Amino acid sequence: MENSEKIGISFFITILVICISVKIWQETDLKPRAGIVVSHDVSSNRNGDITYNSLVKCDDGYIRRVNDMSTYIVPIGSKVVIKTYS
Prior knowledge:
With 86 residues, the chain is α+β, with helices and mostly antiparallel strands. It has 2 helices and 4 strands, in the order αβββαβ. A hairpin with a 5-residue loop joins strand 1 and strand 2 (50-58). The model has no long low-confidence stretch (mean pLDDT 87).
């Protein structure tokens, strides 16, 4: 194999890897989902670190757990928009 063939093959493989990684990145992008808050929960570990959890029933049919204070302060039954991976 000549050097030009090796360079061509490595260039092709590099372009292929870049295309695959861009496709994966596009599919795992955060998407906004509308939903309704179903319940709230507060938990802590033995070190005292507090976690604020909310269950949100999204319009796509899934029930998702959200771990942030901005969703926790919303009253149960209210509509929210959360960002989730596809």
